[in-house]
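Tokens as discussed.
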């Protein structure tokens, strides 16, 4: 994992949360409904600044969009990027501009980049300004922790793997299954124990010593606490310096993606696959 570029002015902590999910979604829908109007406004009192521009900045594009589907990740974060801008797009959608360097190497329009574990598509990029833009749908805002981001927030970034890439973590699709809530953060030496509360629907796929992606970071589950609807994991010093999880606080949300293999096994068992094998 690469360290964050010195050219990004990175705050030591994630900005305080002051925006609730429904208020942001209401703003999104109210602006998106006016598809023929141009605005230049900042919504208040929300601390999430929505920049609405009548013109898009010029992007230095190396090649036209491609239809190649590449959306598989390893959960090994390549770098931490910084949110530069959040706002409505000209088409009524919602755009997020992120400052980064490593993930821009060899980037093309239409490429997939995981942002805090959420697979998003590059719609613009500028290698000179070291940033790229992705689009967000209302469903993405509802189902992920991206709703809590503000300008200045740090995010985990990883490019989709290629056939020649090393599989350093585990199979991560970038399809967030849901969010969890950090309930405790306890240091032990130079390591950090983190406990996350999750829904029972997700927790049934979480097993001790199994994989889970937390904000796009491939981690090993240490223990599962069924009575508390939670699980924990440990971050070593190196990981703490290269992912956004330690910058969060108790009560904040994290994106969770469980191991896809558990879902396949559940599906096979529920379909009567085992019985069909026994009877054959």
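Sequence:
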């Amino acid at each position: 994992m690469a360290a964050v570029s010195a050219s990004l002015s990175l705050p030591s902590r994630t900005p305080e949360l002051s925006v609730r999910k429904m208020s942001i979604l209401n703003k999104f829908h109210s602006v998106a409904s006016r598809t023929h109007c141009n605005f230049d406004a900042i919504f208040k009192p929300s601390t999430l600044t929505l920049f609405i521009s009548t013109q898009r900045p010029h992007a230095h594009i190396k090649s036209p969009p491609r239809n190649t589907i590449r959306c598989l990740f390893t959960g090994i974060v390549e770098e931490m990027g910084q949110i530069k801008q959040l706002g409505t797009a000209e088409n009524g959608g919602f755009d997020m501009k992120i400052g980064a360097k490593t993930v821009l190497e060899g980037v093309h329009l239409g490429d997939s980049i995981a942002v805090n574990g959420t697979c998003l598509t590059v719609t613009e990029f500028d290698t000179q300004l070291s940033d790229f833009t992705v689009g967000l749908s209302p469903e993405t805002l509802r189902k992920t922790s991206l709703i809590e981001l503000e300008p200045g927030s740090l995010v985990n970034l990883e490019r989709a793997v290629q056939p020649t890439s090393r599989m350093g973590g585990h199979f991560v699709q970038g399809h967030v299954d849901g969010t969890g809530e950090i309930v405790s953060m306890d240091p032990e030496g130079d390591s950090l124990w983190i406990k996350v509360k999750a829904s029972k629907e997700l927790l049934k796929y979480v097993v001790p010593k199994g994989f889970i992606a937390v904000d796009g970071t491939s981690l090993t589950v240490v223990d599962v606490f069924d009575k508390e609807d939670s699980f924990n994991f440990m971050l070593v010093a190196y990981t703490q310096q290269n992912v956004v999880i330690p910058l969060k606080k108790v009560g904040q949300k994290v994106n969770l993606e469980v191991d896809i293999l558990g879902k396949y096994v559940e599906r096979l068992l529920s379909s009567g696959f085992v019985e069909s094998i026994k009877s054959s």
